[in-house]
Amino acid sequence: MNAVDDYDTTVLHSAAESGSVDVVSLLLDCGADMNAVDTGGWTVLHIAAESDIGDVVSLLLDHGADMNAANNDGRTVLHSAAQSGSVDVVSLLLDRGADVNAVDDYGQTVLHVAAKSGSVDVVSLLLDRGADMNAADDDGWIALHLAAKCGSVDMISLLLDCGANIDVLDKVSHFCFVELVYYVDELKIIILVNRSNTTR
Q1: Spans of the ANK repeats (predicted)?
Q2: Which pLDDT score, from 0 to 100, does residue 6 have?
Q3: Which position has the higher pLDDT, 188 or 49?
Q4: All residues at 6 or more sequence positions from 169 whose CB lies less than 8 Å from its CB, including other chains
């Protein structure tokens, strides 16, 4: 039941990744360890969240799975859901009490991960739920830096409209505005910044 492969992956990990709710339910009823971790520190709930399988996530939570467990990089289940770009799973975890401002071992919040994944909808949801848009990771980057790196004008616009700090400096003393112009057309950025300044 709880046998593992060379990566400490259990049958329950595999069932969760495949999205088979019936198999996951059967394994849980038979005593499978829902909080078992693989060599990367990933729990079954991490796997289900990153695989965007809401029914399995909900089932595991109902059985008491630890949604605040962190993998070897300090990433929580909510980080994993944000990585997948799943609005439904992120919303479910937040509704169950997940920490919207959880930080991994590199100082990256869930919002950082969502910005890197390119999901404007997840970023918008996190902001609505109180995510700190100006939280800096270990490199001094805020979500706005990462939105720029993705080249997402919609995400940049959203973050600016919500009050992201364009004057923040990263660890190599680059202003966020410099990163925006580097990754995105300069004229678009100037227009966005000017619009943001006039609407505050």
Answers
A1: 7-39, 40-72, 73-105, 106-138, 139-171
A2: 47
A3: 49
A4: 140, 175, 176
**CB of 67 closer than 8 Å to CB of 98:** yes
Better pLDDT: 159 or 3: 159
For 115-158, what is each residue's pLDDT tens digit? 999 999 999 999 999 999 999 999 999 999 898 888 888 898 89
Cβ-based burial of 136 (10 A; exposed 0-12, middle 13-18, buried ≥19):
buried
Average pLDDT on 27-46 reads 91
**67-199 matches 1-66 in CATH topology:** yes
Does domain 67-199 fall under CATH 1.10.30.50? My reply is: no
Per CATH, the homologous superfamily of domain 1-66 is Ankyrin repeat-containing domain (1.25.40.20)
The pLDDT tens digits of the residues spanning 58-117 come to 999 999 999 999 999 999 999 999 999 999 999 999 999 999 999 999 999 999 999 999
Residue for token digits 């975890």?
A: 93
